[in-house]
Design goal:
The structure is a homodimer of 401-residue chains. In chain A, 24% of the residues lie in helices and 27% in strands. The first copy, chain A, contains 10 helices and 20 strands. In chain A, strand 18, helix 8 and strand 19 form a beta-alpha-beta unit.
């Protein structure tokens, strides 16, 4: 293994135009570069491009007018400027606060991943680059991998007779699980429309958040089960025999109640294959958007199963104007039964700009009028991952105590 | 949950310029499109771009001259052509044979992921889109997810006293593992320089290949353990407390033998935490490039541990001109001891264009001269993932029989 080995390693690196570019340009671009003051510089080598822009959730959102839909908020866009070497760059005007951010470039109008940044996350049908601004003591510090014991993350296939499918879920077991004989409580954590069993692990940073909360003694060691909430799917796009399909969002069967009625399939698998505590006091269910909807309706369908319920920017009411499955009928009666059994925590988190804010207000009014106790946590912003990470970080420490 | 819910789901979809593009363009681009004859069409909406090209391993490779290095083979490039709507496209001249392919676009010279394709895989420090051409009976049919029972894939942290680190590895347990009391043989599968514990799962398609081989009865159910072969790393880039670092290739400590000497740490963890058969006849080690090097030297350092050894495009000899750790000293003596213990299978696979071909030839000569039995499998092409998937598909069925 001589010089040829290094040469050829080098040749392997050349296998992308990016590497060529870095070579010909004779410099290694670092992008995004987090500056000392937490401003961020984005850089792209693109001598032949006419325009280069960056779009991301750290830029002020813009409202655009969409035919038939009205005003819609989309992430802002900023122009990069070009130097004499064909290197484009942009630095944020102000430092960014600690957070996990998403962005991509627009090169002559075409969405482009930053070729200097290998960290990309798929959210439903689109992929964005990510970066993380850290800050000791900040909430976002729990979104990063820290030097703490790490849990195990597994992708597991289970049988769901209720959906007549083999299905995939993601399971987090806490640090120490493998080396103990103890049984653990279980938190079922559900994604939103268009998501899948990867969503909470990717943009939700669940493994990092749980590792960090447990290491700091803020949360109990627990098993976190992330299911696939789309009854038509076996697993995330690309993980089934359908092949590398284009991911989409299908809520057409959301009023059929299949996810909720078949939920015991999940619990049965988990209780049979993991060391779990199987009583109500050691079981939680929570989720975002459609997953909040699923948490709400599953927990009142099975009022003896969950002592902890978390609704994160939850959809509340079933679609109007469609036949409604029995799961959703007698909403208030089922809720009454659930609250008569005194769940230990019913938790609602929502952003003040969320499109589901009014539905949540309406739901809280029902809870208030009936004297059903719940905790309420309101944040700025709307229906975005930033909020769901916050809600997970708030909710998990309240479980199983 | 009324029209507003759907509206806002839609608004969420708008969160990328790509979605906007699809909207304004009033058409959903499908790219890559695999045509009926297995030719492939790549499409990109880029009305303002001056040039759009595609580069990928399905195009004839080109040789370029690199200063100081000489001629280097890189993937070919093809031009897309633009229609009156600003939509660029290119269709391969001929059908592509069944295989997993990698590609990316070049928009005005900038490497761009295909915004219509969410399937991307990181290989060392660069990311490419992928697509798969299927074909019943073809080898590549085993690279896709088929409608067969699936194993579990876990990312596990273990303690390595030998490297003084907590480290991460990926573990595949075969379908049925969770529901049996049986013990299973273990195959340790090692990546190349610059790779990590994700490499064999991503471009190596290990989980799919094992699921399919086991379902067809071609391979025994086995546990596959994919370690991180870089002694300086705890885990893959982005999975450690170093943060979202730029991945790199560091072979500076490759002559120190730490990976090989500390390998019992891995085996101990696996044997203590999984139901494994712990005798030599039920343990295999194999790997690609640097992982082949590790397999060769680990198996002769511990001649009682592995009855199956697989060298895939393996580096053979330690770097010359550096101090060599005891692991690598007495090469032929150690090899003699290993072969005196009659390993059941010593398997060598390499491509006829591989830069390590000559070193493998030299090594085979040593084996031949000493009468040490081995199987040899030569393929076209060089040091590429296509070959490593082939070698895995050839090697795994020979294990534990």
């Amino acid at each position: 293994m001589k010089k040829t080995f290094l040469l050829s390693l080098f040749a392997m690196c050349l296998s992308t135009a990016m590497a060529q570019q870095a070579l010909w340009n004779n410099s290694q671009i670092v992008s995004p570069l987090i500056n000392e003051d937490n401003s961020v510089t984005f850089t792209l080598f693109a001598p032949n491009a006419q325009t280069v822009q960056v779009t991301g959730d750290f830029l002020p959102a813009q409202e655009i007018e969409v035919p038939d839909w009205g005003k819609v908020k989309v992430p802002g866009v900023a122009d990069l400027s070009k130097d004499e070497n064909g290197v484009w760059s942009f630095t944020t005007a102000a430092p960014l606060s600690p957070e996990l951010y998403m962005y991509s470039f627009l090169v002559d109008g075409v969405k482009t991943m930053d070729p200097s940044n290998v960290y990309m996350i798929r959210d439903v049908a689109s992929v964005t680059n990510i970066f993380l601004i850290d800050g000791e003591g900040s909430r976002a510090h729990a979104y990063r991998v820290n030097d703490v014991p790490h849990g195990t993350v597994s992708r597991v296939w289970y049988d769901s007779p209720g959906l007549n499918k083999k299905r995939r879920m993601s399971i987090y077991t806490p640090p120490g699980y493998e080396d103990s004989q103890e049984s653990y409580p279980v938190f079922y954590l559900l994604h939103g429309a268009g998501g899948d069993e990867e969503a909470w692990l990717a943009l939700g940073r669940t493994a990092q958040i749980m590792d960090n909360l447990i290491a700091e003694g803020k949360a109990q060691p627990m098993i976190v089960v992330m299911t696939n909430g789309n009854p038509t799917q076996e697993a995330a796009p690309g993980e089934t025999s359908e092949g590398l399909i284009v991911p989409g969002m299908d809520v057409s069967r959301m009023n059929q109640g299949e996810f909720e009625t078949s939920f015991p399939d999940v619990i049965n698998y988990v209780d049979q294959h993991y060391r779990t505590k199987t009583d109500k006091a050691n079981r939680a269910i929570g989720g975002l958007s459609m997953g909040g909807f699923h948490s709400l309706h599953t927990s009142k369908l099975y009022p003896d199963l969950f002592d902890y319920v978390g609704l994160f920017s939850a959809a509340i009411f079933p679609f109007e104007g469609r036949d409604q499955a029995p799961v959703y009928q007698d909403f208030e009666g089922k809720l009454k039964t659930q609250f008569e059994k005194n769940p230990k925590l019913y938790w609602i988190g929502i952003g003040d700009e969320d499109f589901l804010y009014k539905d949540n207000e309406k739901f809280r009014k029902i809870l208030d009028e009936n004297g059903y106790p719940y905790e309420y946590y309101e944040t700025p912003d709307g229906h975005i991952w930033k909020n769901w990470r916050i809600y997970l970080t708030e909710f998990a420490p309240k479980l199983f105590k």
